[in-house]
Structures are given as C-alpha cells and as structure tokens.
Amino acid sequence: MTTPNDPNQPNYDAYRYPETPGQTPGQTPPQDNYGGYQSTYDAPPAGNWAVDAARNGVAPWALGVSILALVMTVSIFLTAFAAPVALIALILAIVALVKSRKITGPYARKGMSITALVLSIIALVLSVLFWVVITVFLSESGVMDCFTLTDPAAQQACVDQALNDLSNA
After folding, report:
1. Is residue 101 classed exposed, middle or buried when 0-12, 13-18 and 19+ CB atoms within 10 A define those classes?
2. How far is CA 22 from the centre of its chain?
C-alpha cells in the first residue's frame, strides 16, 4: 500500500501540457474573466470571415442535375425521360454562370458552371437524337401505321409483320 505523499511515486503533474504560455507544468493557471483560460487568439476584423463570402450555390446543383441527365441519357430505360432533366440542368447552368460573374474569388465556381453547361448540352443533344432515331425507325419500319388500328389483336399482328419484314430485309 502506498501513501499519497510517497517520494517514490512519480509526479504526474510534470507530464501535463501547460495551460497558458509561460506556465510550468503542474502550475495552476491564473483565474480571469475567461473561466481560467487566457485568450491568445486574435480575431480577424469583421467582414473577413469565410461565412461572409458570397458563394455560388446554384453551380453544384447545376452540375449534379446535368450529371443525372447524362446518366439518364446513356441508360437504356431512362433515355426517354432525359430531355426534361437536361433542359432543367441547362437552365440551372446558365443561372450559375450569370451568378458566377457577380462573385469574385474561389467561391464563384465558374469552372463548375461551365462543366454543368457542357454536360447538360451533351445530354440534351443525345436525348433529342434518341427521339429522332426512334421516330425515324418507327416510321420507316411501318410500325407507326399499326397504331391507327383499333383492334388489339390486329395491332399486334401488324407490329409482328412489320418487325419480321424489317428483320428479313
């Protein structure tokens, strides 16, 4: 059993970090209005905070929506619905570019706005191209003529015949 004042026991206070500059380890810091801690931090003047900096918040949204439109365009099932999303992305990219002209510094995000504009144009062109190819294919194959029939069985037989004629040609 050891006693608290045993000289053979190590002095753990010597291993503590100093609380304030110039204070020796184990020494109690002087009490002041800051709860016992002295402030060594000099705050910057008002208006220089990063929170006060104007940011282009539209640019990340434009980039995200344009990437979504591009992914929808290259997917098999969502290509038909990519044109409205690409149009929304194009509008957001234009708004982000206009907003980036009014902001200086790194928070203008002009590169992000330009990237969103390019991606949304690519997605819109690919989506419109998809619709043109599908329309030409349906009209050239004779499948469009089958949609004028009212009987579902006759309509199905017409589509089968048009696709068979297309595959045999």
Report:
1. exposed
2. 48
Separation between Cα atoms, residue 41 and residue 25, nearest integer Å: 21
- 96-135: pLDDT as tens digits: 999 999 888 878 899 999 999 999 999 999 999 998 998 8
Q: What is the pTM of this model?
A: 0.61
Q: CB neighbours (10 Å) of residue 63?
A: 24
Q: Quote the Cα angle for 66-85-75, to 5°.
A: 80
Cα dihedral across residues 136, 142, 143, 146: positive or negative: positive
Supply the pLDDT for residue 119: 97
Please give the torsion angle defined by the CA atoms of residues 61, 62, 65 and 68, in that order, rounded to the nearest 10 degrees.
-120
Residue 106 near residue 56 (C-beta atoms within 8 A): no
The Cα 70–Cα 29 span in angstroms is 61
